[in-house]
Amino acid sequence: MVWKSSGPLKTCRLLLVALFLSQGTASSVLTVNGKTEDHFLDTLPGTQASLECAVQNHTRDEELLWYREKGRVDLKPGNKINISSVCVSSISEEDNGVNFTCRLQSDQTVSISVVLNVTFPPILSGNSTQTVEENNDVRLVCNVNSNPQAQMMWYKNNNVLVLEKDRHQIHQTSESFQLSITKVKKSDNGTYSCTASSSLKVESLDFHLVVKERGLRVPIEPIIAACVVVFLTLCFGLLTRRKRIMKLCIKEKDLRNSETAL
Ligand SMILES: *[C@@H]1O[C@H](CO)[C@@H](O)[C@H](O)[C@H]1NC(C)=O
Ligand SMILES: *[C@@H]1O[C@H](CO)[C@@H](O)[C@H](O)[C@H]1NC(C)=O
Ligand SMILES: *[C@@H]1O[C@H](CO)[C@@H](O)[C@H](O)[C@H]1NC(C)=O
Ligand SMILES: *[C@@H]1O[C@H](CO)[C@@H](O)[C@H](O)[C@H]1NC(C)=O
Ligand SMILES: *[C@@H]1O[C@H](CO)[C@@H](O)[C@H](O)[C@H]1NC(C)=O
Ligand SMILES: *[C@@H]1O[C@H](CO)[C@@H](O)[C@H](O)[C@H]1NC(C)=O
Fold first, then answer.
1. Nearest CA to ligand 2 atom 11
2. Which segments cross the bilayer (predicted)?
3. Gap from CA of 190 to ligand 1 centroid (Å)
4. Other C-beta atoms within 10 Å of 129: how many?
5. Domain 121-212 is of which CATH architecture?
6. Which of 103, 156, 168, 182 could be a cystine partner for 111, CB 3.0 to 4.6 Å?
């Protein structure tokens, strides 16, 4: 019966504590490099960026957590309470768009994020030479990475590529610029250039498309079938002959046995 009277009291105390705790943290604010809102940080490859997270309007020690995307950043013991800095050294093109988040350990809904905005000229890559047989389909894939985004174009032998509605198709994603040609003709042979123009630079990459004449097609299936038949025949032949060979051996053995017995 004791618990009945202390029950409501306990809940009341718990509620009060919870209220106090939530008030203590709800008014806490995080800043990164002095900003209270999520923001982009403009940087260049090869440089480094320092991110300083600080808690404000707090009433006690507040532990801070840093995340790079979904992964916790290991912080040194002296770099956790009330204020915490991370340094992103030797920034590369791959760091563009990477998200850094600082959180309150005591209430992880309180957080602030910084997204790196790494500016760099277009970087192009792809298979420089492709060989295709006449009448087959081919796809030239020009991988592109650029910030700001680049305007993409295909050229053929240094002229703007004139697209044929039925045979040429262009497909663009955030990472690549692709040219598909169906039923390749001899006249498609040539050098195709993928060109990326950003406000920083115009970059170009050559793709050599070599169209081979349709060779004499050797029908491969009948050849395999014929080989199998020949092989099986040989096997059967050997089997039957083996029996005979064994018979001969036994006969010889018998002869030799009789010889030694003499
Ligand atoms: C933090 O405290 C300052 C003054 O100390 C006050 O102006 C501000 O409104 C507080 N911020 C929050 C979110 O409570
Ligand atoms: C963190 O901030 C609280 C409140 O301002 C303060 O009492 C405490 O000493 C600070 N702790 C450190 C390690 O600076
Ligand atoms: C950064 O990541 C945090 C946590 O995953 C997310 O809440 C926030 O929206 C992200 N910000 C951007 C700009 O992607
Ligand atoms: C990234 O930086 C470039 C160059 O400084 C700027 O033009 C662009 O607006 C920035 N992008 C964002 C999302 O802040
Ligand atoms: C380049 O072409 C070769 C042969 O066609 C292929 O095996 C390889 O995966 C291609 N590489 C890329 C990056 O597309
Ligand atoms: C086909 O294109 C390649 C690559 O541009 C070039 O080297 C070659 O001379 C061309 N061949 C013919 C027959 O036009």
1. 61
2. 222-239
3. 67
4. 10
5. Sandwich (2.60)
6. 103
pTM over 0.90: no
In the reported structure, the alpha carbon of residue 106 is separated from the centroid of ligand 1 by a whole-number distance in angstroms of: 19
* Most distant CA pair in the chain, distance: 117
pLDDT tens digits, one per residue of 145-173: 999 999 999 999 999 999 999 999 999 99
Yes or no: say if 48 and 87 are a contact pair by the CB < 8 Å rule: yes
Give the number of the ligand closest to the Cα of residue 26: 1
User: With a 6 A CB cut-off, is 79 part of the ligand 2 pocket?
Assistant: no
Q: Is the CB of 61 under 6 A from ligand 2?
A: yes
Number of helices (H), then strands (E), belonging to the chain: the values are 2, 17
Structure-token match 């006690």, residue found: 60
Q: Tell me: the pLDDT tens digits for 180-222?
A: 999 999 999 999 999 999 999 999 999 999 999 987 666 667 6
- At the top level of CATH, the class of 25-118 is mainly beta
